[in-house]
Amino acid sequence: MKRLAAALVIFAAAAPAAAVAAAPPIQPGYWESTNKLLSPIKQTKTERRCITPADVDKFMAGPSNRHYACTYPHKVIQNGRISLKGTCVSKKGRKVAVQGSGAYTPTSFNLTADIATEFLGLEIAGRASTEAHRIGDVCPPPETAAGADGN
């Protein structure tokens, strides 16, 4: 069950990337996203990240992170609406089916996705959501090594 929760949390954390695409693109800047795993286990994580002009294309390419690679044969992002359907695969080959929809503007978006995987021969389904908004034009400076550990 921990692996499913991890897979769902990873998707939820990456979900903001799926929520944006072509015209108009999201505005670079400082973004905050709240990622919720709604079922089967409830979890919430809020994070802030800097999206530079160079990051916009990658951010808009869809959920993918160092643990999962995602492909979306169905991916429509236009006129303020998002619709996607595809599969994410972990480095160990675990597949997670993803189907989501939501809305976006240049400074905000939301996405709700249904997720399905198999764990120990059991089919497990879940739901995750992401709400994100741009909180600033300028990103804070990166923490220094001394600042990160309090020294």
Radius of gyration: 16 Å
How many helices? The count is 3
Helix content: 10-25%
Low-confidence spans:
4-10, 12-24, 147-151
When the domains are counted, the total is 1
Count every beta strand, where a strand is a DSSP E run of 2 or more residues: 7
Order of helices and strands: HEEHEEEEEH
In short:
Helices cover 15% and strands 52% of the residues.
Overview of the molecule:
It is a single chain. The chain has 151 residues and is mainly β. The protein has one domain. Helix content is 15%, strand content 52%. The protein has 3 helices and 7 strands, in the order H-E-E-H-E-E-E-E-E-H. The protein has helices spanning 2-14, 56-60, 145-148; strands at 29-39, 43-51, 68-78, 81-90, 95-105, 108-119, 122-136. A 7-stranded antiparallel beta sheet has the order 2-1-7-6-5-4-3, with helices on one face. The longest helix has 13 residues, at 2-14.
Write the layout of secondary structure elements.
Layout: H1 2-14, E1 29-39, E2 43-51, H2 56-60, E3 68-78, E4 81-90, E5 95-105, E6 108-119, E7 122-136, H3 145-148
Antiparallel strand pairs: 1-2, 1-7, 3-4, 4-5, 5-6, 6-7
List keywords for this structure.
about 150 residues, mainly beta, 7-stranded antiparallel β-sheet, 3 helices, 7 strands, about 50% strand, globular, disordered C terminus
